[in-house]
Amino acid sequence: MPTKPFALLASRSEDVAADDEYASFLAHTGLRPEELVRIRMESGPFAPLDLEAYSGVLLGGSPYTASIPAAHKSDEQLRVEAELSQVLTEIHERDFPFLGLCYGVGALGRLTGAVIDSTYAEQTAAVEIGLTDAGREDPLLSGLPPSFAAYVGHKEACTVLPPGAVLLATSAACPVQMFRLGTNQYVTQFHPELDRAAMVTRIDVYRNSGYFPAEEADQVIVRISRADVSDSHRLLRTFVERYRTAL
């Protein structure tokens, strides 16, 4: 039966990182290219977005830091943020199927009243993610074990949840690793789309972007290579299976 595609909202201006991110989403959702429409937000206007054309919306990670003052943001970032807020406002009002990874915490969180700052910034690493009681009962996480490894590496995180949010996952160094709003809006701090090869590409592309000392990139690769993050990928496939909608 024909189904509506999913939309992937992306914002990486570096083609190597952007293409590798898209490949990661395809690999771990199980979608074909025609089933996952990539929208590169940084390349030009993308809003309004016709949500009726899609089964759900995925938001990839981003080099943007949501919590810095507007005066320190580029014109590109300010435009993307304004248009993305327009799209997310509709998603939130409709409780439309949404999964935002990394940047989703800052984008949807700030829109709905969360506190996003650098209190729980994370080094680039693989960490142990633990599901809360609510997480263990959530249908999107039903295929995951109570704890699993996933990749992180962020300059900001959620310090205070937005009103009405349900905390689904946490970690020792970052209390908010995943939350849900409504029934169908999910965001993660961790990166379920990244496997080791994709993480190595990300480290190489962003080695001079302040996530870690550039001269320590090889050490970071050794550190992240010790972990098995395969369980984290299930989240993406479950999202697709749950929300795939017939034409």
Question: What string gives the helices and strands in order?
Answer: EHEEHEHEEHEEEEEHHH
CATH class: Alpha Beta
Overall spatial form = globular
Helix content: 25-40%
Named CATH architecture: 3-Layer(aba) Sandwich
Please provide a written account of the structure:
The chain is α/β, with parallel strands linked by helices and 247 residues long. The chain has a single domain, classed as Class I glutamine amidotransferase (GATase) domain (Rossmann fold). The protein contains seven helices and eleven strands. The radius of gyration is 17 Å and the shape is globular. It starts with 5 loop residues before the first strand and ends with a helix. Residues 54-195 form the Glutamine amidotransferase domain.
Topology, please?
Blueprint: E1 6-10, H1 15-29, E2 36-40, E3 57-59, H2 75-94, E4 98-101, H3 103-111, E5 115-117, E6 122-131, H4 133-137, E7 147-154, E8 157-160, E9 166-170, E10 178-181, E11 185-188, H5 196-205, H6 217-224, H7 234-243
Helix pairs in contact: 1-5, 5-6
Short description:
Helix content is 31%, strand content 22%. With 247 residues, the chain is α/β, with parallel strands linked by helices.
Name the descriptors.
Rossmann fold; alpha/beta; two-stranded antiparallel ribbon; about 250 residues; about 20% strand; glutamine amidotransferase; 9-stranded mixed sheet
